[in-house]
Design goal:
Elements lengths: L1 H19 L4 E4 L5 E4 L2 E3 L3 E2 L5 E8 L3 E3 L2 E3 L2 E2 L1 E7 L8 H15 L4 E4 L3 E2 L12 H17 L1
Parallel strand pairs: 1-10
Antiparallel strand pairs: 1-4, 2-3, 2-5, 5-9, 6-7, 8-11
Length: 149
């Protein structure tokens, strides 16, 4: 009886530890663009368990400035992330023990994605015909006019 109680208690503790923590999604964003995961903006690099299935990240590029003028050389990007289920749902009575065995043998199946933006091809870039020095002065005048309004 004591052996049965100890076995069920240890299985309960083992199952509690595996059931509480799902896979994590690590989002690497080296250029610090605005990142959206399934339509919501995220600020942390590690996202907790979401669900098994398909998730989508979108990014809006940061606009850098050159001599006070914004440079729009990057386009938004979007990709899907597949988070596989640990065991088939059709194995209902055995799915939990299979997940426990999988977790003890292989660890937690975390995903890591790297956020990138797409560079515009040269034919889509805006060519500025104003010389660099004059463009900075023009931007400064425009900002001053905006402030005065």
């Amino acid at each position: 009886m004591a052996l049965l109680l100890a076995t069920s208690l240890s299985l309960g503790i083992l199952s509690f530890g595996t059931a509480c923590a799902g896979p994590k999604l690590h989002i690497k964003n080296p250029d610090e663009h605005d990142v959206f995961l399934d339509g919501r903006q995220v600020h942390k690099e590690t996202q907790n368990y979401r669900y098994y299935g398909t998730s989508r990240w979108d990014t809006l590029p940061l606009v850098r400035e050159d001599n006070g003028v914004p440079v729009f050389d990057s386009m938004p990007n979007s990709e899907t992330v597949e988070i596989p289920a640990p065991a088939s749902p059709y194995l209902f009575p055995f799915d939990f023990p299979l997940e426990v065995l999988s977790r003890t043998a292989f660890g937690r199946p975390d995903q890591t994605v790297t956020v990138t933006v797409i560079e515009k091809p040269p034919e889509q870039r805006i060519g500025l015909e104003i010389p660099g020095e004059e463009l900075g002065k023009l931007s400064a005048r425009g900002r001053q006019a905006r402030i005065q309004r």
